[in-house]
## 1
Amino acid sequence: MRHNGSWVLLCVMFAFAAPLGAEVNQDAAAISAALNSGNSNQALILISQAFSALRPDQSGEAKTLIRSILAFTPVESAGKVVVAAIEANPALGNVILSAISDTSQTEQLAILNRVSFMAGREPQNFSLVSESLPRMVNAIDGNLSVSQKLTAPDYNPSNLLSETGVMMSPNKPDLRADRRDLRQDEKQLNADMEQLQDDRQEHKSTKVIDAEEKKIHAVRKDIQADKKDIRQDEKGH
């Protein structure tokens, strides 16, 4: 993770860089802590909540928010962060994409590949950015060497948008993202199971125990979905 151990600075950036609204400021510490601890699933949930709370006319706040988050996001998770932000508030999609210019070109390519891939799956959430995506992808792709492209997280040339903005048919399934999701979910399950055991030993309330069991059930469903995606990708569809 970039700037390891500096998540407190992220909180300061959230609080003072721009008036982001009470709810976003309250989520800032949790987002940065989740990213710092590697709990990307929780971070994505909080990011979605923060961006969904923004109005369409709050472009400045959206840009400051995504820049602040990306500054402390692991490179391999940057694409998911941007996708989550756009999905939560499609009206601010182009503003969010414009803010990734502060990252390295390799990271920008990884982000744009992830957004392009999701745009093919969820066109209703990415319709407002579909026109600018091909131009941005082609501009970054042309500036990077083959070796730089191959080291970019989630890079898959089959997921690139064409000049016309139409998703090319993938010849190679992107297994890395699905396998990464599975590893993260399995790690989260282990952590939740340990927490549940601690809660029971400490004789926590029924409400706390029930909440932890619901979290475990949800993560197990995510793991099942991850494994299904991997099987489908391995078959090429």
## 2
Amino acid sequence: MSEPIEHLLALLAFPGLLATIVLTLLVVLVGQLPAPGGGLTRGIARTLAGDGSPLLLAAALAPAAAAALLPWPGSPLDGWRLDRLWLVWAILELSHALALLPGLQSPSPSSMRAAMREAQMGAAGRVAFWVAIGITVWAGPWTWPSLPAHILALLAAALALPAAAAWGPFAPERSIAPGGPEGDMGRAAADLAQWGRAVRTTVIASLVPVLALPPIPDAHWDINLALAVVITLILATIGRVMNGNSVRRPTLDGLRWCYTRALPLALLAGVAVVLGNRWL
């Protein structure tokens, strides 16, 4: 099979658009995320008909391209390259930025405040999360010299993931404005906003098993793939528990959590990589 066809299949089927939507549906069901049934297809259809938000449509579908670039077990793409991590980062961050624009441009001050809180919380969580993921990729295979760095980076990613995925105390605040950041949107735009958030949460959570955890050595790719999906769903279950048993953090408390706990631990993992390469 030619390389362009392999890339197209990876983008449209596995591990791209189709696989991402299926995994998102599972995460929505397991994590009980606020994404209305049929909202994605309804939002896409209404947007294509001219009654919706092209920005939110792009923000909802772009993460599938990021998922297609990840080294999922059984992916038709060739071996993982570090430069793809930059593309994954750029696509997901662009998706977050596009999703925030309608709320930040809302004529309602309360909806704008809710969108601003989501922007600040999410950005802080993703800074620490991306540093942790980048360091665990930089550390390379799990060996004895790299083990301290991998463990520290994994702990940092675990601390940052709730904020990066908008779970629990870091979830969008809906007491500021009815409907939260989507309060002033029409139904089609609100559906796309909620489903886009679910898709981004799914892809971000899947980075942990795909990039931060080692595969089972010598196991068939479908076993490692099933394990990655199961771990993603376990993380979604943890998110559901957090959503049901926590109150929203004030913005400054959330920023302090990310910048004084998760991020320093991720940077310490980077120091461990350097020391491991130098002395071990």
## 3
Amino acid sequence: MEDYESPQETGKTYSILTDDLIVFYGVEYDDCGENPSEDWDGFGKFHSFGRDHINYYRGDPADLLFFYKCRHCDYENPPSDVEDRYVFEKFGHKVYQCPYCGLWTVLVRVGRDAVPLGYFEHGMCDWHVSGEVPYGTEGDYRWDGVSFAGVWEATEDIIKEADDAGLERGSAERYAWMEERARQSCETYTYWCNGEIYYYFVRAYKPRPINFDFNAETGEMEYDHDEDNIYDELHDYRYEDEVYVDACGCYYGWDKYLEQEIESSVRYALKKSGANNETEEGQNA
């Protein structure tokens, strides 16, 4: 499309004018985005140690990362519970009375399906896997970053997915798999924390001329199709019926996929006027 300009910012309405159609499109912030940590399946649970954060975790951070397994009944003893109870040393091992079966057992530490997270905030924030300092923040990280600021916890559906993939619990391969899932979730969760959620709109109308001329030969009112004689603001069409309308939201982050969706919708709208002679295959390419 010769006149198409890809949106580069929110709050700006773009337009394309043809002989019998004017198309408006743009991108705005979407204030209806869900908290993926609370509302999405297959995303994982974020726990923050920051008191000002919505997912603030009030417990012992160690409880999120590992547990002590009872050798008699497989009960998962939280580290904070173990520390609060009587533990004595025997032959170099800690011995603990399990609160579930009541038997004394040697504690075996088992890692949970969880990944420590780092956090950086300087105007905007960034959640990331602990130890992976975001690019461009190296100089400020010692002041505005925390290497252990929270934990990403795998939910039951993610745990089942790992089990089905044959990843043994406690293995390095399983942890690397969980770490990658945490890394992906951090990117989306950061978008949500920063309010970087968008929606696009595309609306097409029959052009509204500013001035008409009377044609004595035809007895009809005519108007110049020059762009200077056409209302070119979206609010000028607030009482008009759309020829085409499309809108879609909940885009977390601004990427090429969002831009492609907008362009595809604008192309389809222009076909209503015959201004775009591309085939349907071209639109979906």
## 4
Amino acid sequence: MGGAIAIKRTLYAALCEIECGVFYVSYPESDPDTGKLATYQTGTSAADAKRRIEFIARAVGYDAVIWTQTITPPLFASHGKAAGRQPAFT
């Protein structure tokens, strides 16, 4: 008698409030499915933002979310190219 083994998927995420009611969520770069999840989430509290992200995570196949609370906002400049001044006339 063989039985199927259920593979549980756990999402690791860090939450930081960057503005009143606006939260930034970061995920490990090694997890390929995090592209389906939001990086910004609004909420009345951190718990509210976490509930919303956990709901979406379950919808895309995660069984659990392990949270890390941070007080340091992420380095946004590392996610893209810094905007430079463009000349008015060429």
